[in-house]
Please model this.
Amino acid sequence: MYFPAYRPRRLRRNSNLRKLLAETKLSVDDFIYPMFVRPGKNKKVPVSSMPGIYKQSIDNLIKEIREVKKLGIKAILLFGIPERKDEMGTEGYDENGIIQKAIKEIKKKVEDIIVITDVCMCEYTSHGHCGIIRDGDVDNDETLQYLARMSLSHAQAGADMVAPSDMMDGRVGVIRDELDANGFSSIAIMSYAAKYASAFYGPFREAAESPPQFGDRRSYQMDPPNVREALREIELDIEEGADIVMVKPALAYLDVIRAAREGFDHPIAAYNVSGEYSMVKAAGKLGWIDEELVMMEVLTSIKRAGADLILTYFAKDAAKVLSRK
Ligand code: PBG
Model:
């Protein structure tokens, strides 16, 4: 049936019709809100390149988590900024490390919030790389035991889920074994399965104070031109026991999200990363775009591409918009 019998505009005539026909619906249930915790008391340091995002001490973090919960958000992703960094990233797996303390406090003081932890060495190492350095490069196999220890320490502190973001080969299996061997078989793994070496992480590295001190992350994170390789990475992580697989970044990789959705039945998460957030915030501040509309359009595109879950710094802003609708 073609024009004039068929007129697509008939179903776009007003807002109720458009809502009735919307193929993709964003929900606050889809969001995971990333948060940064640092040592100290009553600290709240703004991340200059990410308006609205702070590095906070545990007391202030808990205040914000209460607010996050009130908005209907169900899960947070926690990053720790340690007191001290060293070659081996020891604070990352210390039971009294910043993140372990934060998890315990959250679990003591806030009910019913899913705490997911980022598992990676880069926030804790003095060189800023995601693993242990041997002969000038990150040693894959040596790093695995530290990632397993870090994951276990998060689970012991009370984390609900761990999210390895280091991109070492074989880490999901090693983490699964370590958790299971210590009685944490119910703790889920959300793996950063297809994580690209992306310039969109720039603002995050200011937030997490984790830029690599030499070289870059291209020998372990994925090369942007590749999508078939992403499917192999995802398949490996699923084989090793990942419960949720993530594509990261989201916006410049919507085709990867779509391919992942079509290739696998596992839940797919997509990380709307710091640079994607900062660009929208910056252009919005300058009055060059309508920040709120662009935010909702971006998040909808990530869902439409096939993501079940969206990790986003916009979670609070978007939850407010959704609650008005
Ligand atoms: C740690 C990690 C990074 C991000 C999440 N976990 C930085 C990186 O790999 O360089 C980026 C998140 C963002 O940009 O919002 N490895």
